[in-house]
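User: what does the whole thing look like in 3D?
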Amino acid sequence: MSTCIKLGALTLALGMGMGSAAWSAESLQDVMKRRGLSQQDVLSAAKTYVPTGKRDEFVAFASGGQSGQLIVYGVPSMRILKYVAVFTPEPWQGYGYDESSRAILKAGAINGKEITWGDAHHPAISETQGKYDGQYLFINDKANPRIAVVDLRDFETKQIVVNPVFKSEHGGGFVTPNTEYVMEAAQYAAPLENEFQPLEAFNEKYRGGITYWKFDRKQGRIVPAESFSVELPPYAQDVTDAGKGPSEGWSFTNSFCSERYVGGIEKGRPPYEAGCSAKDTDYMHVINWKKAAELVKQGKAKKINGHNVLMMDTAVKEGILFLVPEPKSPHGVDVAPDGKLIIVSGKLDTHVSVFSFEKIMAAIKAGKFESKDPYGIPVISMKDALQTQVQVGLGPLHTQFDAKKCVAYTSLYVDSQVAKWDYCTGKVLDKISVHYNIGHLMTMEGDAVDPKGRYLVALNKLSIDRFNPVGPLHPQNHQLIDISGDKMQLLYDMPIPLGEPHNTVAIEASKLRPGVRYKVGTDSRTDKPHPGAVRAGEEVTTRTGKKVEVKGTLIRSHITPETIEVEVGDEVTINLTNLERAEDETHGFAVSGYNVHASIEPGKTVAVKFVADKEGVYPYYCTEFCSALHLEMMGYLLVKPKNWKPQGTSAIAKANYTEANYRTRLKTVAETQAVIDSVVGYITSVNYKDFPDVVSMVEDATDQLNKIPDAKARHEAAAAKKDWDQATLWAEQVWQYQVKAADIGLRAKTYLEQHNAKKTR
Amino acid sequence: MSTCIKLGALTLALGMGMGSAAWSAESLQDVMKRRGLSQQDVLSAAKTYVPTGKRDEFVAFASGGQSGQLIVYGVPSMRILKYVAVFTPEPWQGYGYDESSRAILKAGAINGKEITWGDAHHPAISETQGKYDGQYLFINDKANPRIAVVDLRDFETKQIVVNPVFKSEHGGGFVTPNTEYVMEAAQYAAPLENEFQPLEAFNEKYRGGITYWKFDRKQGRIVPAESFSVELPPYAQDVTDAGKGPSEGWSFTNSFCSERYVGGIEKGRPPYEAGCSAKDTDYMHVINWKKAAELVKQGKAKKINGHNVLMMDTAVKEGILFLVPEPKSPHGVDVAPDGKLIIVSGKLDTHVSVFSFEKIMAAIKAGKFESKDPYGIPVISMKDALQTQVQVGLGPLHTQFDAKKCVAYTSLYVDSQVAKWDYCTGKVLDKISVHYNIGHLMTMEGDAVDPKGRYLVALNKLSIDRFNPVGPLHPQNHQLIDISGDKMQLLYDMPIPLGEPHNTVAIEASKLRPGVRYKVGTDSRTDKPHPGAVRAGEEVTTRTGKKVEVKGTLIRSHITPETIEVEVGDEVTINLTNLERAEDETHGFAVSGYNVHASIEPGKTVAVKFVADKEGVYPYYCTEFCSALHLEMMGYLLVKPKNWKPQGTSAIAKANYTEANYRTRLKTVAETQAVIDSVVGYITSVNYKDFPDVVSMVEDATDQLNKIPDAKARHEAAAAKKDWDQATLWAEQVWQYQVKAADIGLRAKTYLEQHNAKKTR
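Assistant: Here's the predicted 3D structure for the full assembly of 1522 residues, as structure tokens:
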């Protein structure tokens, strides 16, 4: 059982690897002592550390809460890979600062008002037969009821749709097993017609509901015209889950405040929290969405605000809507992987309640209801629906599933713990403390039909003392827990630096296959060719009345055009196409003072638009550190006074270079060519064609080298005419092309060496 | 030398710690094998892993590039702790979504146009005698020349100032040794008067410069009226550093494109990059800022756009401005810790150039100049100023210093390496490869007079294949390198998920002492009492014409008021004060569809304002998961039609609770009190008063318990009148207060246990 390795050998190996006898490296034991690490700490470190160039096993997608964004991180390293802009403008991505992404945000306007943030709560990855397929992600906005679609091919937001009948929603971003629909349940009730009604009319005029957004997988977009809602009582609907396997075709939605209580603490009335949790139970809504969709197709829906709403009386009459009492103020409603059980956690209860889909169906079939609610909806008794209840602790909230049969994990908000339990036997198997006050939790693909187990993440709402202090506003704390053994083991504390992730989903990394470049000239927000795209050499500036349109290009290190001249008051549109192919060769674009920014990844075309409303001189530049001469990748927007005419015959000043300057340039060019030849020699001596990343780099380097003959012809022609200014500058430009080719070539060489490229000759 | 520990013992220890004989934990060797980790990987993991509850040694502040924000992360764990909103609205922090922060952003408007992003490049921590003091941080916006002030007491942006004479800047965010001034150098030249001038007038009318922003440390604000600029030639000034020790009072600013070249690739002219790097040298600007400040005080500056500008001819005449040729297109200009040497890296050179301040002063004193530039500025010859040049590799960019004497580190962009070298002997000591194309680099307090050594971070611009793919737009890669030994050792790859950090500074964590709460009623953006603040029980809604002003409060789990009634068209201001004291008990506030959001940390008062322009029902709610009943922390904004009158005598529906309901409530209350008594018993049995975090929690819990007598009196009075509705609801409210007290109490108990509180009785 006991294994012994020599830590001294580790020191030695490191020393040798570094090739320095003088270096006295610390041994692992030294490091443990210096840093106060326990053996368990080292084990946790080893379980989470991902060495350079290696990949994480899972990719997690967390809602960004009030940041309105989506947070992508790796598991087990817990390193954040990207914030994807969804509901909130974000300039690094150009989101809301270029025209195409502005159109996405504008489609999310409410009552004609642009909404520049969201309260993102529940991300959902698209599913095929109940399994995560890694194609799309959906996420909701609680504050302004909306759903967004993110394409996982490029991690960009493609669409925002506004709920036409709700004023608030929480239970959004849940998909049916083949992503036929994205479900969005209302939260705080209000009139569906978006009209004013006094609170006194709460029971009669205020309504909840659930919207089923039709998703067109081929187009990658939600189709509002084919979407519909089911009207529900004003019971503050909460999270939702779709049935699967035997329960496929049904959906389950929690509620709280089924008391329909209206607070008023400022008027001496007991506050919402008292009235909304006075009863011991709320209602789980059980809905046959497949049949509801058919009823809508049959024309049985009512149009409200132009949207199909299946009214409660129709739903009741057609037998597609039922209620089941559940312990009060629940949050999670989680369908087990086999689709047979539905697990509900009442936050003010100490139990999880396991409902049986089979029992619910039996009661419906038998017409066995304990009552009807005030709106005529049949209520199945809790006893008739319940499989079992398991006491897990204080403040149970959300349940996720393990790859191991019958094993579930439930977060305990008040206890600040995670309970591991068996939903077949009803036994609690283990508990672990978390820091502090856990909301949702996540296992790997933990709500799919085939959860992957391995890791669990506790989404703790408070971090308090866990991290270096950063002022009164603290990060949240996502704690990674190893669930591969019988006992849960805390591995890692991860601060969330921006936003309050409400829920998170994780997918096997191998299922994601995003692209690294676009087909040249693509508008990434529409997935179509961009009308402003041009190829190299076709750059053009046109004027139509007061409108100036630039169609330009970007390639290391030029923006073409380098000068844009307009008249004050012109509306200026600048379209830019990134001509690079190499992975990660993004260019940015900003114009001083005009509040536009674009991120233009390889192949993408982006337009920015503004009114040049003040005369002056405005530099524009590439905002990415894209080459050694990135600072020189710039130009000037000249906003001229109306009817301005150049005075005299002034020309741009000459530089007064000499023949000696020219000869020096030529010498440098010859020397640099030797470096390039050596790099090219190395690359072509190995199997570089087996590395698509390198092939793209070689293509980009070749592009740069191919520009040399033209520049060479120019400097030679100028030299023949003894125009040493032009001769020196064009010779310099030859060198610029060389430097960039060498830069890419050296990067390719490093890449090949790091990836153990094989000699082919 | 060789130490042997039994890994089997580790397994055993873990097994015992978990108290489960059945659990077969992996040994370290098992984990290494399963995860493919080398011994060096484990050593790196152990050097960077920070166990739960432990702190990082250093805190790094990275500019957020085009995100416009500031990124705060811990070293060595490389976990991002916070994105601080600076130039870009950010809803999680309420930045740009509440009134006080909107005022900060509005002060950054240019030509009356609100600018909603920035290109943040260089953060600088305030210094006292050349040492980082951890009080303030300054950061620049390259795209729209501005400087922001962040207060490190609360990590909030307090001020944005717009440069009155520049159109572009890059060399911003550098401080003088006692933070007298924050320096901001122009980049792309333009007329200082902000007027239009054609490119043909480039040499005559376009200008660069450097602005010295006066900082008032007591007020924590820049004072524009006491700030000034020095006019400089149109040489594309770049980064700047302040002299220190013997060179204190002077500043050094790089440049590129001192050729004053104007591109035009679209017109067949060689592009900027060719013309801007055609000469072998550019100029380092050497400026006596102390004397410049005196000259300005003496009235020798010219007012341009209302701002004091010391013109070049005055600066030359007064002997405070000199030029020194430096290898072309340099980026870094870095003053060594002793203040005697200035290290410049020409990006197209293979050398770093070490200039001697003493030699520069000697040349100035002797009046020994090789020439004057076209603007009459004396040029000291490179030979007379240079100490030495050291060949370090391709694309040297930025230099930072070690705690070890004479040891410096320079980033090599083209080679994708870091060179460690000795600036006293001129020897290269070591090189390490990074991934890929490093821009700036950072050692711990590496530009202060007393660098701390230990760690170096390489700010790599490309990550390419280092991380799980997330689409065409890649994260940057910050690589942590151990510099404690003779050889550098790569420890960790950290993806930057949002923005392109341009430069980063790191400070010893112990120097930061941010607060966790505000004095009740504070406007955090002005540091003054907020006019909208009220105390508990003083909440009020007032109307003045079409303006409705709410002064409300927040405490778990109520927003007071719970109903706000206005008429369509009213301008609504909602002021909210967070009454919590416990650390990390932040509340958020959103109104459906009105595009406002506030983050209200303990003690803070925030106002949101909007026009209620459409009649209807709009829920508002707390956007933080602040208690188990956070979903119930809500209310309704009712926007009524003009002149709406309630119809009939309808009242809010009654709940019809019974005496039995009331008795059940009372039973629960009694049971819960037992839990509370037990928790209180534990807390008071230990030295909880030694833990300020817990003292705050106890205060908040006591607040909740103190509300009970009033609610108890109400339920007893109602019961006496057999009003079972009110009796049940107020009894329920007693329980709510209990639950929150218990929630806080349990958290305090966990905290005390985790921090090994001692029994006192």
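In plain terms: The CA atoms of residues 244 and 691 of chain B lie 41 Å apart. The radius of gyration of chain B is 31 Å.
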